[in-house]
What does this fold into?
Amino acid sequence: MASLLSGRYNPVLLELMTGLIALTVASLMLWLWLEASPVVPLASIVTFLMLAGLILHFIPDRSRWLGWANRITLARGILIAMLAGALADPSLLASHSLPLVSLATLALLLDGVDGWIARRTRTDSSFGAYFDMELDAFFILVLCLALIVLGKVGPWVVLIGTMRYAFIIAGLRLTWLQHPLPQSQRRKAVCVWQVAALMLALLPMIDATVAAWLAATALAGLVGSFGLDVGWLYRHARACPFD
It folds into this structure.
C-alpha cells in the first residue's frame, strides 16, 4: 500500500481508490436495502476496476490530479458501475427497476456537467473528451443489456450498444475511420436520445411493444448518425489521402 501512495502515481491512484471506496459503500448500502444478491456489489466493483484500468492506461500524466471535470465523469462511472452490477441479478432489475432508472437518470444529468466545468475552468483535454465518450458508450451498452435481461426488447437492441465498438474495430482495418471528427451537436443529440429512449423503455409502466419502438428510434438515429460520420470520413480520406 505504501508503494501505491508514494511516487509519481500518487494523485490519480488516490482518486481512484477514493472512488472505489465510495462505490463499495454506496453499493453495499443500496443493494442491502434492495435485498440484492451478494454478486451485485461484487460485479459493480469489478466493473469499476475495469474503468480504473482504462483511466490508468490512457491518461497522459498519472502524476497530476484528475481535476474537477474528470472527477464528475468518474462519479458518473461509479453510478454506471452500480447499474452494470445490477445485471448480475435479473430479479433485482424486474422488482426494482424504478430505483435503477433513478440511478441512470442521475448519471444522465451529470453528463454534460463535466464538459461545462472543463470549459469554465479551462481544463478541457483530449483525455477528458475520450473518457466521457467511452463512458457514454458503455452506459448505453449497460442499458441495452438491462432491456434484454428484463425481456422487454429482443437481442437486436445490443446493436445500439455495440455500434461504437464495431466502429473502433473497423478502424483497425480501415485506418481512415480513425481520423478525428469535427464537433457535432447532431451527434450529441443522438447520444442523449439513445440514453433517454432506453431509460424510458426500462420504466415498469412501459410495456414490451412501446419499449421496442423506443429502442428502434434510438437505433435508427444512431445508424443515421454513424452513416453521416462515416461518409464524412470517407470523403475526407479521398480529398486528403496523406493527411
